[in-house]
Predict the structure of U-box domain-containing protein.
Amino acid sequence: MPASLEPLDVAVQIPYYFRCPISLELMNDPVTVCTGQTYDRSSIESWIATGNTTCPVTRAPLTDFTLIPNHTLRRLIQEWCVANRSFGVERIPTPKQPADPVLVRSLLNQASSVSGSYSMRASALRRLRGLARDSDKNRSVIAASNAREVLLLIAFAGVGSDSASFELNLESISILSMFTLSEAECMYVASDFERVVWLVNLLFHSSIDVRVSSAAMIESVVAGIRSPELRSKISGCDGVFEGVIGILNYPLAYPRALKIGIKSLFALCLIKQHRYKAVAAGAVEALIDKLAEFERCDSERALATVELLCRIPSCCAAFESHALTVPLLVKVILKISGRATEYAAGALLSLCSASERAQRDAVAAGMLTQLLLVVQSDCTERAKRKAQMLLKLLRDSWTHDSIAGSDDFAGSDVVPWPLWRKTIEHDEVGRKTIQF
């Protein structure tokens, strides 16, 4: 039901036949089941997904689970919404119908037909790509048709040769990048290093869409296999970090490039022995310069990547040499999420443990304020422990003047200067803690 309807219970009475019998809310996408009863699509799909095989109203068995759109009722609901616009009622949108499983299977057969013409196969793959991009529901229908297995065979057909089916390869990769691969499917890619090398080469394709799709595939494969040897082999592949960081540095606004780029970089950086390659490829500048452009979950992943890299001494030194690293990490504390605060504090702990200059920069950026707020906040316990360790590490770096001159403490009843330096102790289990 549109959000604007929620406070209108008194002013507007929704006709009972416009309400879904399951949710009792205004239907957005009415569909009729084999018993003749009509429900909102999301409600009846949830009912069936939980294992129910009867009609919620009549209790008669559902002999056919086909959901037929009730276009007439949906148009009546839309007309009612328009007629009540003066009461703040918003018109429900006309929903896109989910992909027809029969059509999906037909397109997959055409795409995989070796005897079919090149243009027919390419056209079928483009239609599948369009359906997959339309909605999660369509992707579920496509996945249920065993599409990933078929597309993997097409994607890597002729890899390593001057195959005339190159466009078919790229179209299949583009579709596969929208799905989560199973472990067996990831192993299919990772077990043949020529396939990995081919995906890495695509990271330098002239089309940004091809580059992003390839990065998404690489991330899915690295995250989906358990073999440390294969994961290490992929992250050690020549050019993989340069390609992924090139996607992060794409000059035009392209949200999917940022999202896939940071997911791929994080997955590759989980393999410790090759983290130095990320820094050599320009990860420091990419992460620090792009941090403000990420969405919340991607910001968390970016900060987690920074923390991972800062655990390697040479990488930590590279971050420390970037003038904006420490001030930016201090600034994001408590600004994004508890997890982001935890990762930022962890990165700062590595930086300040390795460099007195980083300690001075952190103090100048106002880290005392941030750390004291962290230990009093509802952040994660790990974030608090890291903040406590930082306070102990830096307790000799602050002066009374640096506290008194902080605008954040003006008129505040946060820990007074004479007391806070004496509050860092070890508790009975040996963990660092702060007591006020």
